[in-house]
Design brief:
Layout (H helix, E strand, L loop, with lengths): L1 E10 L2 E7 L4 E5 L6 H13 L18 E10 L2 E10 L5 E4 L2 E2 L12 E5 L4 H4 L2 H15 L2 H30 L6 H44 L6 E6 L17 H22 L10 E6 L2 E2 H4 L2 H23 L4 E5 L7 H11 L5 E5 L7 H5 L2 E6 L2 E4 L2
Parallel strand pairs: 3-13, 3-14, 8-12, 12-13
Antiparallel strand pairs: 1-2, 1-4, 4-5, 5-6, 6-7, 9-10, 10-11, 14-15
Bound molecules: adenosine-5'-triphosphate.
Adenosine-5'-triphosphate (ATP) binds next to α1.
Length: 390
């Protein structure tokens, strides 16, 4: 797939800017705070309808304005598609496909596929489990847009179950009778337990499935980038574990198996949940563990090892999306090349080749190989204006 043009209207620090991408690789050069990342964020929004930087649309709209718009023209093997997103500070967004407004946002997802790589991605290894869950969830949405809906359903049930547990806890505290609300609570909870297990099992099975495909790809890349000196292991650590016979592929677990394990675990945590007033069981507490040569990368990996790991994950994502979607996704490299040493830079550039359209931001061109620069479109970004770089 190839993003031909992008039009930003009242988006972040752009008032009205059109960009045509006329080479498979585009470098956006500019000083800090000029709008480079904002442009990549616009592409991310057209892909996932989410920004990894903010959650409120108001912040995405040019200051002092009430609405903004992003429009992109995409070439896919099936034909040209125009994607549009209208953002409003005081009302809901509108999603447009070939200028027609879409009723379901789900139909917009996964038309433009992207893999992003920014310095923030080191948090994937160093940060909290939440980071890793949101990384795998974003990947799943790209591969299978209906997952966005599945996840939303799970979190809705979770919120309602948490609200019930919290209310019950504060009522029992204020009445001073620990057990006064119990019978009602238990029967109401049972309804939510069942729904949590059904919706949660969908999330868990999909996470198993995607990791089963991603892990060997990441391991191969990691081995290659580390010059065959390191072995990476990725382990999905679901909060609800299903005990299976040896050699059973976990991704092949039936929904019933997972739901049963889920309910079983809830029954062992009932008291703790009621005391803490929150749900302690479910995929909102999952994690993914990375180990390099048997050592946990999060606590003990050197920063070089952690960079190699993130790079391997990103390359694996590219490969997996291409295999599932059938077309190479876009790669967005936000200020990340300069942070990689030369050999890792070259691994990355070699892997990209000409197959993956790549948008790269940088503050200086010094870090790039001159031969490489010759085949690249170079644009300058200055105070929300994009022009040719001279
Ligand atoms: N809603 C908005 N309205 C107007 N300007 C905004 C808005 N949001 C962000 N900006 C401006 O955009 C600029 C930041 O742009 P961006 O994050 O793209 O930086 P960058 O060029 O990638 O720089 P760096 O190299 O520091 O990451 C800042 O000047 C900020 O004030």
């Amino acid at each position: 797939m190839y993003l031909k043009t992008l039009h930003l209207q009242q988006f972040r620090n752009y008032s009205d800017q059109k960009v045509a991408f006329d080479a498979p690789k585009t470098i956006l050069v500019g000083d800090n705070a000029q709008g480079k990342s904002n442009l990549l964020e616009a592409v991310e929004l057209l892909s996932t309808l989410k920004s990894h930087r903010v959650s409120r649309d108001r912040e995405l709209i040019l200051d002092t304005q009430d609405n903004g718009q992003i429009t992109g023209n995409l070439e896919r093997e099936t034909g040209r598609i125009e994607l549009g997103l209208i953002l409003r500070s005081k009302a809901r967004r509108t999603v447009l496909l070939n200028s027609q407004s879409l009723r379901r946002q789900l139909d917009f997802l996964s038309i433009l596929n992207v893999v992003q790589f920014s310095s923030l991605d080191l948090e994937l290894v160093r940060g909290s489990p939440e980071r890793r869950r949101s990384w795998i969830d974003r990947l799943l949405v790209q591969l299978e847009p209906v997952y966005a809906y599945i996840l939303q359903q799970y979190y809705q049930v979770l919120r309602q179950r948490n609200a019930l547990l919290k209310t019950a806890r504060s009522q029992s505290h204020s009445s001073g009778e620990e057990h006064s609300q119990k019978p009602i609570l238990n029967s109401e909870l049972a309804v939510w337990d069942a729904q949590l297990a059904v919706t949660g099992a969908r999330v868990i099975r999909r996470r198993y499935r995607v990791l089963e495909r991603l892990i060997p790809l990441a391991q191969t890349w990691h081995h290659l980038i580390s010059g065959s000196t390191e072995n990476l292991h990725l382990t999905y650590q679901p909060n609800v574990q299903v005990i299976t016979a040896e050699n059973t592929r976990l991704s092949a677990l039936s929904p019933q198996d997972v739901q049963q394990a889920f309910l079983q675990k809830i029954s062992t945590r009932t008291l703790a949940e009621q005391q803490q007033g929150t749900t302690l069981v479910g995929p909102h507490r999952d994690d993914i563990i990375f180990t390099i040569n048997q050592t946990p990368a999060r606590q003990y990996g050197s920063s070089g090892q952690q960079r190699t790991l993130v790079l391997a994950l990103k390359l694996a994502e590219l490969q997996l999306i291409e295999a599932v979607i059938g077309e190479p996704p876009l790669l967005l490299l936000d200020d990340v090349l300069a942070e990689l040493d030369l050999s890792r830079q070259n691994q990355l550039l070699e892997a990209i080749g000409d197959r993956f359209q790549t948008l790269i931001t940088t503050t200086h061109l010094g870090a790039f190989d001159s031969q490489w620069l010759q085949q690249t479109q170079i644009l300058s970004v200055q105070a929300g204006k994009i022009g040719q770089y001279f």
